[in-house]
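Our consortium's second objective concerns turning raw sequence data into structural hypotheses that experimental partners can test. To show how far this objective has progressed, the report includes one record in full. It was chosen at random from the queue rather than selected for favorable results. The single chain below, 470 residues long, was entered without modification.
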Amino acid sequence: MPFNLNTPLDDSNLDAPATRHLLQALQANILKGHGRNHVVLLFLEITDVAKARHFMHHYKVTSAATQFQETRRFKDTGEPGGVVRLAFISHAGLVQFGKAAPFAPGGTPLDEFFVQGMAADTAALDRQTTDSWQSALKRPVHVLLLLAHDDLDDLSHMAFSEVQTLNAEASGFELLLAQEGRAYFNKAGAGIEHFGYVDGRSQPLMTTSDIAAEKGAKADFVYDPTAPLKQFMFDDPLAPGEGLASLFVFRKLEQDVASFKAAEEAIQGALTPPPSDDELAGAMVVGRFENGVPVTLQPPPPAAPVDNDFNYNADPDGARCPFQGHIRKTNPRGSSPGGEVFDKGVQMARRGITYGLRLQDPATAEFVDQPNDGVGLLFMSYQASIKDQFHFMQESWANNRKFPKFGPADPFVGIDPIIGQVLLSEEAEAATDHVWPSPAPHAQKNFSGFVHLKGGEYFYTPSPRGLKHL
């Protein structure tokens, strides 16, 4: 039975043959986030190919079918889902397994950036080098395993057992790093990142149930987040006709919270006249207030729900949301030269989670501490093309000092203040690019350098069947 990837998945009947066939052919976490609050990532280097292949053949990943069945059971009975197990393989790992050829049919790579790896993709690196990477992630990462669960104690026991197995000579792997991840939430129950902002709100939606929930009773929708499956998956080269695969981006992004908050306060104090909302400066940097409300919709910012149905048509000059605002840079919603269809096609399925221990006020859920290091985001995304999605977004949008205004008379607007990575040759000029609405004449313009890449890689997400064909 062929897979139809030209539309979202109709998940109204999980027992329909076509739906069941597709869900069984795909790992969990792609169509929808796995929803667990704790994860452990295990980064592996192959030391014995035959043993490693045997291990992977018997490694039971969680399928999308299991994920959807557990979600349905939770809705019906309240029974929580179990542990989620996922597996990813880098191109270097495929070379080790002797399985790289199907990823370059006729000599043309499926994706050139997947083949070369993140360490060679200078657009994705701080200062175009891997100097900022932690030592373990500078080693060749061939396989990444992900374990996720809501119960931290259970997950810790499972991870410990998995590490013991991997450290045994029979596994065929050397464990390079075990990385924890944990979710944080604001008082309203929305997931937040370490700078304190609601995170992951604007996602492309690829199931009919998610699309219906997002649109609700609205007759008209300003920005339709509907996306076809082919934007995130493709026929698995290791199991053609039997499985679906995806390309996976992992980045460990450390956040300097104390410096970010100090810079945020400096801009807030320089706005003239002084704004009535003490979060306005941060909202202009991120593009949303801390509660997730888009700054382009203010004034006044509503309290809830977090609106995702908006574009920038009413803010063409960046008077509310500056052109360099993080969410405007990474999801221009039709305001780029490419238009809405193109902009939507660049979007990835983001499945990241924060890492590092923070203190929260029990009454308000506000973060109490402001660390300079040791906390951040484990950025994870699925896409059909790293070249046309993650890499393009990073290089042509986030790092581009001109984007989205390219006219000869248009001034530079600067890099994305959160994830933008400026070229070394342009550092001095880029420091004066950012323009904030109504600042005092002496206000410092530059707002960047508070997120540091500690390591990353591009991976292939095999189908459950594809793992058996390594």
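The partners drew two points from this record. The chain has a mean pLDDT of 94. The longest helix spans residues 152-167. Both points have been shared with the crystallography group to help prioritize constructs.
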